[in-house]
Amino acid sequence: MRIPYRPLAIGLVTLAFSALVLARAQAGDRHFFAPVADPIVKEECGSCHLAFAPSMLPARSWQRMMGELDKHFGDNASLDPATAEKITSYLVANAGDAGGQRYSSKLLKGVTPGAAPQRITELPKWVSEHRKVPDWEWCHKEVRTKANCVACHTAAEQGYYEE
Amino acid sequence: MKNMLVVTSGIVAMILSTSTIASPREDLLAQYAAAAKVTSFSAARGQALHTQSSSGGKPDTPSCTTCHGKDTRSAGRALTGKTIEPVAVSVTPTRYTDPAKVEKWFKRNCTEVLGRECTPQEKGDWLTFVIGQ
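YS: structure for the whole thing
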C-alpha cells in the first residue's frame, strides 16, 4: 500500500498554520485578557460591574482588594469568608504577574514594584493607552465611568479589548 | 394496562410533589411573615418602598429605582453602567429562587438606599410586589 504523502503533508501544514493563528489570536494579542472562567468569581465580581480579568492587576492588588471588600470603591461589597477565600485564590492564581501570564504583563508595565494598585484605570499603561479618548466620551451617558469597559470595547466580556 | 398505571401514578406523584413542596419564593415569604409576625404582605406597600426617595443612604442612590429603573419590567442600570435584569418575576422568572442571593442583595441594597437593613416586613412587602409584577 502506498502512503498518500502529499495530502498528508498538506493537511499537516494547514493544521499547523491554523493552530498558530488561533494561538496568536488568543494569547499573542496584546489586547486579549482571559475573562473570568470561574462561575463563583463571575457571579460575585460580575453582578455590579464587568468581572475584570484577573490578569489586569498584580496578585498583591487582588489580595489587598479582597481584604478591604467592606470599603470597595465606596461600597460595602462584603462576602462570607469562605466565598471571599475562594475568589482570592482564583484572582491571585490568575493575576497579571502570576507565572505564565507574560502578555498581560504589558498592562502592568510601569507599575512600581511592590505597589498594589487598586484601579485598573490608573495603571500607567492603561492611562497611556486611553490618552486619546476625549473627556466628552467619558461623560457620555452610555459610558458614565472609566470602569465601564464594554461601553466601547464591545467584546470585553470575551476578553478582547481592541480599539 | 401496566403502562397506563405507571404513567398515571407518575402524574399523581408530580402533582403531589408540586403541591406539597413550596417554591423557594413562597418559603422566603413564609420566613419573612414569621419573622415579622404577620400573616400577609402588601404589594402596595412594597411598591411605595420601591419608588420612595430616602436620604438615609448614599446620596447617589436615593431610591431603588435609581438603578432598577421606574418600570419593573424593564432592565435597570447600575451606576457602573452594567445592565440589571428586570426585577419583575413575569419578565425574569429565575429571580428570587435562591434565598441566600435574595438576602445578600436585600442587605446590600437596603444599606445603600436606606442606610440600614430592611425589616422582614419590608422584605415581604417588596417581594410580594415584584412577584406580582
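YS: worth flagging: The interface with chain A takes residues 58, 78-82, 108, 111-112 of chain B (CB under 8 Å).
IM: good catch. Also The mean pLDDT of chain B is 89.
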